[in-house]
Specification:
heterodimer; A: about 75% helix; B: mainly alpha; 12 helices
Amino acid sequence: MVFIIPLYDDIIGLLGISVILSSLYMQGQSYVDPIIRAIAIQSLFIAILIAILFLQNGDINLLYLAIITAAMRVIVFPKIMLYQVRHFKHSLREKGSNQKTPSLMLIGIIVVIIGYTIFKTVLFPLIPDTQQASIPFILLLLGFLLIITRRDTLAQISGYIQEENAILYIGAIITPGIQLLTEFAVVLDIFGVVILGVILSKQRNVFRTLDREVIEQLKG
Amino acid sequence: MEAKIKVPDRFILEIIDIIQVGTVVLLSPLIAGIINRLKAMVESKHGPSIFQPYYDLAKLLKKEVVLPKRSSLILIMAPFITFTAYLVISLVVPVVTPYPLPYGILLDLLGGALMFGLAGIIGIMAAIDAHTNYTAMGASRSASFTALAEPTLITIFFAIAIITGTNNPYVTNNTLAISPSWYVSATHILAMTAFFMLILVETGRLPVESSGLMELGMLDDAKIMEYSGKLLALSKWSSYMRQLLLMAIFVNTLLIPWWMPSEVSVLDALYSVGILFLKLLALILVVVVIEETFAKLRLFKILDFLTVSFSLALLSVLSLFLVGKGGA
């Protein structure tokens, strides 16, 4: 079952840019709630992207992948994280240095430029004929940026999921027919979030806060 | 195959020119009136008539001019220069025709932006010349926000220039109208969004709102505070024209590039005015929905708003490298 999709390249490109845009939006937020919602929307974009790839290629594995992505990353993980926010009276706002978040958004744009340059010079010769593979690479860097600029655990988990999204994305784009890699990514993601969830609830029970600083007291 | 190119009559083109400028001059107060009326209706009020701006202008044109004692010639000349600048712009941008009119050769999009800039800077100079605190405050605020809005505008024009290979608004209109691939490309959509945010800033709409006499947020109306009578009428009329021109450039070159009759004839030009009016109505509906759903930003948050629109414009240029060029 293969469909000819009109404007295929442009729609794929638009979805790719939307993914980057959602990531930049996350950089620009100082509250945790919108970051979690944005990660759900970003995952939705990627699920749609994989579904379109399925329609184009007719590979049934891609359909499974899209459904798993939509179920886990769009619905389950954000629900768990929002539950943490609601029932724990988690401080919604970042404390400290992150008040000037729009400037973080501009730093995000600079990261996009740097990421593209690195991709073009180092990685592009290795991965031929996929211009779009630069997007997941940039997404990975933006995920790192989110993690290093936030102190809040949930925001950092969002950055982590974003990196997983990047791996899923690159797997779906450059390995048509071999979704093993991407499925591994999904499995690892689930493991990661389950383990982090356990750590979170443990931390919540013990310290009554999700701030990372309290763990640092445990340093020897 | 021989292509037959009919050279259009210069006389007809001149008449279409007059129709185009007349549309901008005469339709612009109506657009402002419709926006005000719609806003009132959404708020369950009756609101003023949609022709209220015309009544206001007529009333002001009859009144005498009172000027501050210490002001100079700049204050008197400014409304005339601004008004003329908008008249020139209305000769060269695609308002009613998808083909360039005889004077279209004068300016490209960047030139148009510079003309808007000229009008802005003259307004600021006049505000300083009025020698009162409020106008000076409006001038300084407007200068600091414009300093951030201009780079965004120029980046948007970069994006448009990349799409079409030229800075001519007519070519942009044509390229987008015939190529759905460019129309849905990320470059175009991001540039369009950034431009729309800029329009909200430039026309003083919520969430930025710079019009009105609320002291804490006033910006545009602070600048013309010392005007009265005919000069005030001209200033107000200029701001209506600016609003219509920005909206027309937006709908005709970026948002809805279709449905402009390409035959060179006076009837088609008149028909095109109707089409433009409908397009503007659609845009006005969107603007009114935004005005009624968003709260006003604090003055210093406007900088954040501009940062976001600048980021979008920059990403629009970058996206061309990230996902490649759209199709033919």
